Amino acid sequence: MTAPLLRAPYCPTLSSMNGRPVIVILMVLAAGAGACANPGPPSPPSMISKLDVARGASDQLGTQLHEVPPVIDCANDLPRQVGAGQDCSETDLSRGQRHAVSVHIDRIQGSTITYSVVVGAAPLPPPAD
């Protein structure tokens, strides 16, 4: 899913008015001053893509286990809020086994998201072909 392209409102400048009277420029600038104000940084998306959830959980699990990050697959996007979670699956390529993985958001600090990742003890059955 690609984020929509956000465009800033058109804010006229002296060079873009092509010699129109200054009074018009002042009226246009005064009327549009709120729209031209710096809105600050864009707000983060309300959802985290399933690929980003899987990547973040995989990186965190690899760090916790001091191993190469496992392959994690998540079926859905996740709401960007502390406590949100879902069940995913983890593939241990070295053993050829899959396990259920519970992934929850523990903390959101700016663009950094910390996940709680719990791997199920019993392997999952092989996927149906």
Question: What report would you give on this structure?
Answer:
This protein has 129 residues and is α+β, with helices and mostly antiparallel strands. The protein has 2 domains: 10-37, no CATH class; 47-123, Nuclear Transport Factor 2, Chain: A. Helices cover 23% and strands 32% of the residues. The chain has helices spanning 22-31, 33-36, 50-65; strands at residues 47-48, 71-74, 78-79, 85-92, 97-109, 112-123. The chain has a 4-stranded antiparallel sheet, with helices on one face. Strand 5 and strand 6 (112-123) form a beta hairpin. It starts with 21 loop residues before the first helix and ends in a 6-residue tail after the last strand. Mean pLDDT is 76; it is low at 1-33.
- Low-confidence blocks of residues: 1-33
Give the strand order, joined by hyphens, for the main sheet: 2-4-5-6
Oligomer: single chain
Overall number of structural domains: 2
Describe the secondary-structure layout:
Elements: H1 22-31, H2 33-36, E1 47-48, H3 50-65, E2 71-74, E3 78-79, E4 85-92, E5 97-109, E6 112-123
Antiparallel strand pairs: 1-3, 2-4, 4-5, 5-6
Considering the chains and any ligands shown, give keywords for the structure.
single chain, 129 residues, Nuclear Transport Factor 2, Chain: A, four-stranded antiparallel sheet, two-stranded antiparallel ribbon, 32% strand, elongated, disordered N terminus
